[in-house]
Automatic annotation (TrEMBL):
Keywords: Ion transport, Signal, Transport, Zinc, Zinc transport. Belongs to the bacterial solute-binding protein 9 family. InterPro entries: AdhesinB (IPR006129), Bact_metal-bind_prot9 (IPR050492), ZnuA-like (IPR006127). GO terms for biological process: cell adhesion; zinc ion transport. One of its GO terms (molecular function) is metal ion binding. It comes from the Bacteria. This is High-affinity zinc uptake system protein ZnuA.
Length: 316
């Protein structure tokens, strides 16, 4: 019979080797695991996907039909927030319902876009009014939070996502950085196309459904006359609607609706004034699969309604 002491030593060595193999296997799995990014809205997810490529999993919190201004989180949504390695949102200026849940997460797990350095903002006068035809690099408090509608801001967001993902998955840091720079270069080409495409319609007046397009309007020098409502959840008053009608009657060419909004009365107003009816979607429908698609679709919507003279409204 063998020595009990020898048997114990052999057993201990085998157990140690087994534990070592399991530990190394666990570390390998952890190293190979893709970071999980949860974007609050689809446009941010599209930007993040450009950076992440196949080295991170991107998911979207809000359905495209939901309002980013006011959304009732479900228990499953809270779980998704906790499980994400990185939550990407604009900020309380847009998704105010997320402010409290995100405050309970580690700061390194949350990336807000609204406060990033270097963002471009529509110029605002001393009374807090946007100047749609002008923009600047200065931060404005209470500025339009739809920052992704300026491709220069999309590039800034992409670089911030690359930096944060690089901290979460250092082995892929260079990959993320290269993707962000490649995306930034593609945005320059996109920007040039849109500037050229929209130049012929810059002087034509229009109204948007809600005040969420100033980044796009300012950057491309378009002539926005008014908006129907400040946010989709706020019903316009009679005085505002009369002022809207008056300005559109004087110099309006088009009034834009939005998907998933009940705007038939505004459409009827536009038709009674002989205006073209357009449709703008700042979020992107199911067919939009990239940030460039989103912006090109938006540019085409402006061009179609302002230049072609064809009605493109949702209601027929």
């Amino acid at each position: 019979m063998g020595s009990p002491r020898l048997a114990f030593v052999i057993h201990s060595v085998c157990s140690f080797r087994t534990l070592l193999v399991l530990l190394l296997w666990s570390l390998a799995i952890t190293a190979l695991a893709k970071p999980k990014v949860l974007a609050s809205i689809k446009p941010l997810a599209l930007i993040a996907q450009e950076v992440a490529g196949d080295q991170a999993d991107i998911d979207i919190l809000l359905p495209i039909t939901a309002s980013a201004h006011d959304y009732p989180l479900k228990m499953s949504d809270h779980r998704r927030l906790r499980d994400a390695d990185l939550v990407l949102w604009v900020g309380a200026e847009l998704e105010s319902f997320l402010a409290r849940p995100l405050a309970n997460l580690p700061a390194e797990n949350v990336l807000g876009s609204y406060t990033l350095d270097g963002l471009f903002w529509p110029e605002v006068d001393d009374h807090g009014h946007d100047h749609p035809g002008h923009d600047s690099v200065h931060q404005h408090s209470n500025g339009d939070p739809h920052i992704w509608l300026d491709p220069r801001n999309a590039a800034i967001i992409a670089r911030a996502v690359a930096q944060r993902l690089g901290r979460i998955a250092p082995a892929s840091a260079a990959y993320y950085a290269q993707n962000a720079e490649r995306f930034s270069q593609s945005l320059q080409a996109l920007d040039t196309r849109l500037l050229t495409q929209l130049a012929p319609v810059k002087s034509l007046g229009f109204a948007v459904y809600h005040e969420g397009y100033s980044h796009f309007v300012a950057h491309y020098g378009l002539h926005q006359l008014a908006y129907v409502t400040f946010t989709p959840e706020r019903r316009p008053g009679a005085k505002h609607l009369q002022a809207l009608r008056n300005v559109l009657a004087r110099e309006g060419r088009c009034v834009f609706m939005e998907p998933y909004q009940n705007s038939r009365s505004i459409e009827e107003m536009g038709r009674s004034l002989g205006l073209n009816i357009g449709l703008l979607d700042p979020i992107g429908n199911d067919k939009v699969s990239s940030y460039n698609d989103l912006m090109e679709q938006l540019g085409q919507s402006f061009l179609t309604c302002l230049a072609d003279g064809r009605n493109t409204g949702a209601h027929r």
